[in-house]
Amino acid sequence: MDLATVVDLVKERLGIRSNVRDTYITSIANAVVTELDEEKGLAIDLANPYHLMFVVDYATWRYQSRDSDGAMPRHLQYRLHNLMIHAGGVQNDV
């Protein structure tokens, strides 16, 4: 899987059928993956369905909330914390 899959799934979730917003959605998806990697220390594997859907949901929220200053929804916070805990657990086992 790659970012094109993320973009396609975000568009499906939002009901977007044209390619007009692809550049913008691709940039959001890329920024989400980069943020998770560089700021949160998570190695995102888009072949992992849990990682893939988290990135899709996070990118969708980013797209929808671009003009608001509200906090991240609780379900995304919960899943992000679980990903961080899981990644920390894997690193401690090595």
Please characterize this protein's 3D structure.
The protein has 94 residues and is mostly helical. It has one domain (3-93). The protein is built from four helices and no strands. It has helices spanning 3-14, 22-38, 49-64, 74-93. The two termini are 26 Å apart. This is Phage protein. It comes from Geobacillus thermodenitrificans.
Quick tags:
single chain, 94 residues, mainly alpha, disordered C terminus
Note poorly predicted spans. Answer: 90-94
**Averaged pLDDT:** 90
Total of helices: 4
- The general outline is globular
User: What is the percent of helical residues?
Assistant: 55-70%
Quaternary state, please? single chain
Number of domains: 1
Radius of gyration, Cα only, in angstroms? 14 Å
The class by helix and strand makeup works out as mainly alpha
Q: Proportion of β residues?
A: under 5%
- Helix/strand order, N-terminal first: HHHH
- Biggest beta sheet attributes: none
Distance between the termini: 26 Å
Q: How is this fold's topology laid out?
A:
Blueprint: H1 3-14, H2 22-38, H3 49-64, H4 74-93
Helix pairs in contact: 1-2, 1-3, 2-3, 3-4
